[in-house]
């Protein structure tokens, strides 16, 4: 028996986008409306005053809990945290690999 | 409301620690096992707000400091998970507790003989992971490279300073395998049941009246 690779559907992608925005709003105490308006180029680390190193740690831990992924030391870099698009791409890749 | 309690020490002496209590000699006497470390600060106000509401609902509550926590003068780096478990059991018997409300990592030391609630329980491993991660990220910002595995190895043998909290090697080793266990008569109270995000996630301590109302209502109704 061969198993087919899972191709994330548009519905999955939209659900992940919603989940990630909700998670950021929860962790940073942002207005959900502000988080829902994030686009791929919206700045995160270094742009949002709420996102300091403790908050980054909290955000990554919540991502692990809610998305069921494991984030390694080496995964955490500037590109992943700089924009919302970077973070979403990271989460998508992690879920695909898992 | 604010007083002290005497924790029996192994050597026959006692240690005086802070106690916040609403004690009106009522039938239901609830021991509160608070969240730990940074989360303790973030959730302190919320915890007290819940206690005030439980008082209005006719329930006595007791929030004791354990050695090394909150206002305690005992050094944190000498405390152990087993010591805290024994301390909470001693608190339960000293206050004649009938129930327990344990919060986050406080669930790891909730006395198993008391019925009650585990609110947003957290495992020792997750607590440790989040604290070590905060340290590696802060180090990276300061231009130093620290690895989670190397820090854990150091922590297991010598202890570790995490987010300003000096944790002893014994505590770190115990936390790596500590899971909250719901004893008979204890119920899980998930964050989703309170209708908002957990306040321990906030960068600064905060409060939320509607979440405190929701938590109190769940407890008060099930005791009715």
Summarize the structure.
The complex is a heterodimer of chains A (98) and B (224). Chain A has 98 residues and is mainly α. Chain A has 5 helices and no strands.
Describe the fold and architecture.
The complex is a heterodimer of chains A (98) and B (224). Chain A has 5 helices and no strands. Chain A has helices at 10-28, 32-36, 53-67, 78-82, 84-97. The longest helix of chain A is centred in the N-terminal third of the chain and has 19 residues, at 10-28. With 98 residues, chain A is mainly α. Chain A has a single domain (11-97), classed as ACP-like (Non-ribosomal Peptide Synthetase Peptidyl Carrier Protein, Chain A), CATH 1.10.1200. In chain A, 59% of the residues lie in helices and 0% in strands. The model of chain A has no long low-confidence stretch (mean pLDDT 84). By secondary structure, chain B is an alpha/beta fold. Chain B folds into 2 domains: 2-122 and 180-219, Alpha/Beta hydrolase fold, catalytic domain (Rossmann fold, 3-Layer(aba) Sandwich); 124-179, no CATH class. Chain B is 38% helix and 20% strand. Chain B has 6 helices and 9 strands, in the order βββαβαββααββαβα. In chain B, α1 links the parallel β3 and β4. In chain B, α1 (37-56) packs across α6, α3 crosses α5 (169-176) and α4 crosses α5 (169-176). The two termini of chain B are 25 Å apart. The mean pLDDT of chain B is 95. Classes of the chains: A mainly alpha (98), B alpha/beta (224). The A-B interface holds A 25-29, 50, 52-58, 60-62, 65, 73, 76 and B 38, 126, 129-131, 133-134, 136-138, 140-141, 147-148, 163, 197-198, 201-203, 206.
């Amino acid at each position: 028996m061969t198993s087919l690779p899972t191709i994330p559907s548009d519905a999955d992608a939209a659900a992940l986008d919603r989940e990630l925005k909700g998670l950021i709003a929860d962790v940073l105490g942002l207005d959900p409306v502000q988080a829902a308006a994030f686009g791929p180029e919206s700045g995160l680390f270094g742009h949002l005053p709420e996102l300091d190193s403790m908050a980054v740690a909290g955000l990554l831990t919540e991502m692990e809990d809610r998305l069921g992924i494991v984030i390694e030391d080496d995964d955490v870099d500037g590109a992943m945290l700089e924009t919302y698009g970077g973070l979403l791409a990271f989460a998508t890749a992690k879920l695909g690999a898992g | 409301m604010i007083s002290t309690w005497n924790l029996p020490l192994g050597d026959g002496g006692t240690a005086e620690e802070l106690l916040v209590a609403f004690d009106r000699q009522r039938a239901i006497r609830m021991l509160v096992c608070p969240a730990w470390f940074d989360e303790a600060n973030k959730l302190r106000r919320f915890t007290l707000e819940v206690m005030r509401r439980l008082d209005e609902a006719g329930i006595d509550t007791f929030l004791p400091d354990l050695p090394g926590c909150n206002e305690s003068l005992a050094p944190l780096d000498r405390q152990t998970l087993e010591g805290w478990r024994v301390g909470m059991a001693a608190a339960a018997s000293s206050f004649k507790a009938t129930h327990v409300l344990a919060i986050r990592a406080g669930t790891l030391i909730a006395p198993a003989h008391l019925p009650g609630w585990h609110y947003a329980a957290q495992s020792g491993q997750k607590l440790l992971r989040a604290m070590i991660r905060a340290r590696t990220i802060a180090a990276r910002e300061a231009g130093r490279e620290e690895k989670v595995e190397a820090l854990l190895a150091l922590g297991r043998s010598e202890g570790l300073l995490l987010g300003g909290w000096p944790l002893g090697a014994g505590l770190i080793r115990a936390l790596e395998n500590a899971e909250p266990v719901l004893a008979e008569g204890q119920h899980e109270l998930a964050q989703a049941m309170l209708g908002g995000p957990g306040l321990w996630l906030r960068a600064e301590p905060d409060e939320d009246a509607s979440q405190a109302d929701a938590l109190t209502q769940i407890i008060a109704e099930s005791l009715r």
